[in-house]
From TrEMBL:
<dbReference type="Pfam" id="PF13041">
    <property type="entry name" value="PPR_2"/>
</dbReference>
<dbReference type="GO" id="GO:0003723">
    <property type="term" value="F:RNA binding"/>
</dbReference>
<dbReference type="InterPro" id="IPR046960">
    <property type="entry name" value="PPR_At4g14850-like_plant"/>
</dbReference>
<protein>
    <recommendedName>
        <fullName>Pentatricopeptide repeat-containing protein</fullName>
    </recommendedName>
</protein>
<keyword id="KW-0677">Repeat</keyword>
<dbReference type="InterPro" id="IPR046848">
    <property type="entry name" value="E_motif"/>
</dbReference>
<feature type="repeat" description="PPR">
    <location>
        <begin position="131"/>
        <end position="165"/>
    </location>
</feature>
<dbReference type="Pfam" id="PF01535">
    <property type="entry name" value="PPR"/>
</dbReference>
<dbReference type="InterPro" id="IPR011990">
    <property type="entry name" value="TPR-like_helical_dom_sf"/>
</dbReference>
<dbReference type="Pfam" id="PF20431">
    <property type="entry name" value="E_motif"/>
</dbReference>
<dbReference type="GO" id="GO:0009451">
    <property type="term" value="P:RNA modification"/>
</dbReference>
<keyword id="KW-0809">Transit peptide</keyword>
<feature type="repeat" description="PPR">
    <location>
        <begin position="236"/>
        <end position="270"/>
    </location>
</feature>
<dbReference type="InterPro" id="IPR002885">
    <property type="entry name" value="PPR_rpt"/>
</dbReference>
Length: 446
């Protein structure tokens, strides 16, 4: 009965049946324990009260002397991991006399979901056997913490015939394309696209959205449009939205708005993310009236209540064209509290248009919301210097020194032959620095 409830998604009823079995004095076997722990996932583990059933099942196992099998122990790893108690998950894992690949994957996954990729990778290396889930979990883990180049390096290991017998699948490629997008690796993205086509991993079009997103974020909007145009029968809301956002990102406001109209002509109703792309297009194109029209008609036309991201787009739009007082009034009257991103966009607009008075207000708010980030103070110092307000500049720098704040060094990167080279201002860590300096000297010499 408990299994039937759990299988049909009735987690609360499944736990009730399990509790009734215990009340009748029936000692559960491993099958019943696994069902009960699975039901614990179904009721959610976000609160202390919700976590209680899983811990009670574990206590029952310990006190009754039941020897949990591999399935029960694996479910315990998941339950404690989702509760945020990784140390208990690891203890359960370490105490397992026999571990399946699923057990190893479960423990790696819990480390990954809590952003502990170092521990996850150590466990990944120790696995006696890795399947596609193992590789996917570890690659996704690197992406989760922004280590996209490490994710791509791991993928290269995965597809190397000499080191790995496991073939990537659709989820692998979706994650790898996201890593290419995150690292801005267009050459690698093209190679991954070719790998996908060569191995027929996108025959159903399921990777089209990821390909469009990758090309758009890597600076090749034309290739993104090519992928989009080749799949006329497989375009969904996400595909349309990705193209609209990509066009907006590349400053092609008119094309983005035409695509938005075409999407609706094809019977696709926009969501809140689509409208962010539309408003961004208006901001980048300086289309004030059109942007305001879309913003103020969102709720009436599409039943979408503007979120902070939509307000941010309009503030950016007004700021770009110098309508700073209107932007400031919108920030003050927003139905939600403005965050550091909102104030940061406004501060940048104040700097561009040399409005020190409003810039001081924006900088103070950014510093209040994110006191450890020196960016706002650096921006304000730059504004003082441009206005030749030397006393205010000296005061600001003195305060920065007293707080031991330093400007974050500038950073740039370039992809060459599939490898990303990163350069930091004032840095001397690049392994080919000597050769680079020699070439620069030769260029400067003539």
């Amino acid at each position: 009965m408990a299994r039937a409830h759990a299988a049909s998604g009735q987690a609360t009823q499944a736990l009730a049946v399990f509790g009734g079995m215990l009340a009748d004095g029936v000692l559960p076997d491993n099958v019943a324990l696994a069902v009960a722990l699975t039901a614990c996932h179904g009721v959610g583990l976000s609160s202390a009260a919700a976590r209680k059933p899983g811990k009670m099942v574990h206590a029952l196992i310990v006190t009754s002397g039941i020897v949990p099998d591999v399935f029960v122990s694996t479910e315990l790893i998941r339950v404690y991991g989702e509760c945020g108690e990784l140390s208990v998950s690891r203890r359960v894992f370490d105490e397992m006399p026999v571990r399946s690949t699923v057990s190893w994957n479960a423990m790696v996954h819990q480390y990954v979901r809590h952003s502990n990729v170092g521990a996850a990778y150590k466990l990944f290396l120790a696995m006696p056997r890795r399947d596609v889930v193992s590789w996917n979990t570890m690659i996704a883990g690197y992406c989760l913490v922004g280590q996209c180049r490490e994710a791509l390096g791991l993928f290269r290991q995965m597809v190397s015939p000499s080191s790995c017998p496991v073939r990537p699948n659709g989820p692998t490629m979706s994650t790898v394309l996201a890593a290419c997008a995150g690292a801005g690796c267009l050459e690698t993205g093209i190679w991954v696209h070719a790998y996908i086509d060569r191995n027929r991993l996108n025959d159903d079009g399921s990777l089209d959205r990821s390909l469009i997103d990758m090309y758009a974020k890597c600076g090749s909007i034309e290739k993104a449009l090519q992928v989009f145009e080749k799949a006329p029968g497989k375009r969904d809301l996400y595909s349309w939205t990705t193209v609209i956002c990509g066009l907006a990102m590349h400053g092609r406001a008119s094309d983005a708005l035409r695509m938005f109209d075409a999407m609706q002509d094809n019977g696709i109703r926009p969501d809140d993310v689509t409208l962010v792309g539309v408003l961004n297009a208006c901001a980048h194109g300086g289309l004030v009236d059109e942007g305001l029209c879309h913003f103020y008609s969102m709720e009436e036309k599409y039943a979408i209540v503007p979120k902070i991201e939509h307000h941010g787009c309009i503030i950016d739009l007004l700021g770009r064209v110098g309508r700073l007082q209107e932007a400031y009034n919108m920030i003050r009257t927003m139905p939600m509290k403005p965050n550091a991103v909102i104030w940061g966009a406004f501060l940048n607009a104040c700097k561009v248009h040399s409005n020190v008075e409003l810039g001081e207000i924006a900088a103070a708010e950014v510093s209040r919301l994110d006191p450890n980030d020196p960016w706002a103070r650096v921006m304000l110092s730059s504004m003082y210097a441009k206005a030749q307000d030397w006393s205010s500049l000296a005061r600001e720098r003195k305060e920065m020194n007293s707080l031991q704040m330093k400007k974050t060094p500038g950073c740039s990167s370039i992809e060459l032959d599939g490898e990303v080279h990163e350069f930091v201002a004032g840095g001397f860590q690049h392994p080919q620095l000597g050769e680079i300096c020699t070439i620069l000297e030769n260029i400067e010499a003539g």
